[in-house]
Amino acid sequence: MNIYEFSVDKLDLKNKIIFDCAIGAGESTYYWAKAIHEQGGSSKIIGFDNNLSGEDRNIIHENLKDFSQYVEVKNGDISDLNDYKNNSVDYINCDDTVVFLANTVGLLEKSIKEFHRLLKPGGKIVINSEIPVSWNSEVYIQNQYRRWNFAKAILAFKGEIWSIEPSCEEIKKIVIDNGFVIEKEKMFQPFKQHNPTPCINEWYEIMRDEINLLKIGEKLKIALLVEASVIRNNVLEKGMACPAYFAIHCMKS
Ligand SMILES: C[S@@+](CC[C@H](N)C(=O)[O-])C[C@H]1O[C@@H](n2cnc3c(N)ncnc32)[C@H](O)[C@@H]1O
To answer: How far apart are the first and last CA of the chain?
Structure first.
């Protein structure tokens, strides 16, 4: 069972309202929509994200394929969905997003409180998150390590934070402190990504733009641009890992 199959495992997805916080490329959303299709009924997923272009929306619908019909994509900040009523949602899928919430003081906890407000009693959040990549003899794992830590270093030049990876224990404490009980959890080992090309190309474009904006000398800028391109080429040639992940099912008590 992969992490996305674990996310929807044993969930009753018939006639339910599901919020996807945040939808990103819709990779995990595909598994939720597929499970809805298999169970039948009239369930609906609303996928929120605060940084989606028209092109991103096309990618989501390409990833969802025939299951697109179950998903509506909306711009929104998942820490503040105040257009939606208390106790109105059955499930929240929060896949690979807490690492970006933990960058801003208080934002992760604010989001968990918002999920608690939105969920019906007995409703659930499923959180998937990354475990920091450790150096390893496998080249595809080294490539993920370099990509992730290079991005952190570039953002640090500007005094910003690319990501913070809270541990499973830290996340569990936050959800328990905010009115959830842990139903089940599982660790997933790193594996080689099937098609890292879209991800590494998007990463490269972000790095290129960030480096060009840095207030540093031209020679250093060129050296960083070359390094970004070396990392991308290594990934295209030798592949890249998905990091280890943990997944937790949390129920509103
Ligand atoms: C790695 S992606 C999520 C992957 C996605 N769950 C999937 O299945 O493909 C993380 C997303 O979180 C979004 N994001 C980060 N902070 C957010 C916030 N406060 N509100 C809404 N979206 C946010 C980013 O724009 C990004 O698209």
So the answer is: 27
